[in-house]
Specification:
The chain has 93 residues and is α+β, with helices and mostly antiparallel strands. 37% of the residues lie in helices and 29% in strands. It has a 3-stranded antiparallel β-sheet, with helices on both faces.
């Protein structure tokens, strides 16, 4: 069984008004062999992420911080709205 690595990635999302953007922290899990570059490549393909300068911050975190972050994602207003408008979001996140 492969070990997991956990990451906090702050992404730049769009669709918040004319030239508007919002930065949202996402908490992601990958196989241990995935590098920072691989995490950024995957994160920038996520739904509604802006096309330029998508990832503003990324760092490897421990499992406890990952679980806390996943709970905070559930309370994030922008992500709640994103789920409402995009039903396929549930499959990706």
């Amino acid at each position: 069984m492969l070990e997991q690595s956990y990451w906090k990635v702050v992404l730049r999302y769009g669709h918040v008004g004319k030239r508007g953007e919002v930065y949202v922290a996402r908490y992601l899990a990958f196989n241990e062999e995935v590098s920072l570059l691989g995490v950024c490549e995957c994160a920038k393909e996520m739904l509604d992420v802006k096309h330029s300068k998508q990832v503003s911050f990324a760092k490897k975190i421990d499992y406890t911080e990952y679980l806390t972050g996943k709970e905070s994602e559930k309370e994030n207003f922008y992500l709640q709205k994103l789920k409402t408008f995009n039903q396929i979001y549930e499959d990706v996140a």
